[in-house]
Amino acid sequence: MAIVVKLDDLLHARRMTLTELSERVEITPANLSILKTGKAKAIRFSTLDAICRVLDCQPGDVLNWVEGGEE
Fold first, then answer.
1. By residue range, what is the domain housing residue 23?
2. Locate the HTH cro/C1-type domain: which residues (predicted)?
3. Cβ atoms of residues 40 and 46 within 8 Å
């Protein structure tokens, strides 16, 4: 897939765990993990909004489009 999820990089930069993010965003750690690993087929705007609010970032910081597939 040409969409790359950069959640790992953002969590590392903010010294935040996936569990902490899941609690603050109110999404299960399992669902957040599916998103983080790039296995999600979709993401709700409300979830993306909450992630951006908690991580103080833009949607483009979370998701990247890479021509030709994976980065």
1. 3-65
2. 7-62
3. no
Number of other CB atoms surrounding residue 10 within 10 Å: 20
Report how many domains make up the chain.
1
69, burial (CB in 10 Å: exposed 0-12, middle 13-18, buried 19+):
exposed
* pTM across the whole model: 0.88
